[in-house]
Amino acid sequence: MTNGNSLDPWYDSYAQRTAGLSASEVRALFAVASRPEVVSLAGGMPYVSALPRELVTGSIDRVMTEDAAMALQYGGGQGLRSLREHIVDVMSLEGIRASAEDVVVTTGSQHALDLVTRLFIDPGDVVLAESPSYVGAIGVFRSYQAETVHVTTDEHGLVPEALREAIANLRTQGKRIKFLYTIPNFHNPAGVTMSRERRIEVLDICRSNGILVLEDNPYGLLWFDEPAPQAIRSIDDEGVVYLGSFSKTLAPGFRVGWALAPHAIREKLVLANESAVLAPNSFGQYVVNAYLDAADWKGQVDTFRGLYAERRDAMMAALGEFLPDLSWTKPNGGFFVWLTLPDSLDSKGMLPRAVKELVAYTPGTAFYADGRGGGNIRLSFCYPTPDQIRVGVKRLATVINDELELLETFGHSTRPSAVTESRSTVVAPPPNIS
Ligand SMILES: Cc1ncc(COP(=O)(O)O)c(C=O)c1O
């Protein structure tokens, strides 16, 4: 053993790609934030208590009675055929026409993200992403040593002109752009949805530049006021890899998600899946398959939609009541609101004081690969009840107002500039925060 340090004797042995794998400095705070007296507006955990237990036990009983030998055994690397056929039906709700042949079942869509990145990224390659983007995806891209470049995003999603400019700039610098990662529906963390016109334009730009689109859509069926526009994959089946998941419409504990990919990519994904996990979770797949066979799963999705819509409304009302001078996004589905702080407040620096006031949120810095986000906060409304949301936002308003008072007294910004923020400090919070 050589050249370690007193904390980790293997320090010098790790592969370079692990440089991006550091624990979040806010992790300890989130441990405190999980205490019952703290209202957490930080986590992205689905409210699984709204899933009737008998729906799940019925499916498990059926699997153990009818398919135990297969469900307890290794399966194929592509996933259970009948589940893939159900997945094709699920995707048809968002306008996608596909064959079960082109679906690969994965250990949650997070694993699909990892596999696609593994297939396409060499160190130094560029991934384009919205601004901000999903913390779990940024972490995957970093672990394969990709450079994530954020593209300007507004309330209608990615801005096509900004995408064109980013591509041109990167090409001038000789960079290789491998794919565009986008969450078009009820974005995590921004809460916005890409308009139909933009979907067509963004796809067009990517197609004409030979850039693959990685469409990540775990929240699409959880709409509130009106359904989201049809999936980007519904417009093009050659240039898009589409990711889906049962984590939000059923439960994340099964860890069942999928990728739908053009044929050649699909073949490589199966091989990569086999090399990583041999086969996706057989038992989880059989239970989800039985659930989709026998339970009123669309009715259950409606139940979730109603529940989350009520919580979104509670959050909108509380923000309007307690923080009327700030601005925030108004999600038409999903779990998240993106709040913009008054100039000069720093979301990361303010978090310890918020936790002291018994409210937690995720600082915007978690959702950028380049140190930005200090002026934003992600608030989630999926897990706390409407009453808790109101209390949480009220506490947050107290923290923000106190910070502003401090600022008035001492008269300087608390926000570090993005350039002084080291890239390695922008690291993933624990999984229940994603
Ligand atoms: C945008 C996005 N993609 C992917 C995932 C991963 O989901 P899972 O692996 O549970 O399917 C999440 C989870 O929060 C997410 O928000």
Automatic annotation (TrEMBL):
Keyword Transcription found: no
Segments for region (Disordered): 415-434
Source species, domain of life: Bacteria
Cofactors (names): pyridoxal 5'-phosphate
Compositionally biased tracts (Polar residues): 415-425
Domain Aminotransferase class I/classII large: 66-396
Keywords: Aminotransferase, Pyridoxal phosphate, Transferase
Keyword hit for Transferase: yes
Protein name as annotated: GntR family transcriptional regulator
Species name: Curtobacterium oceanosedimentum
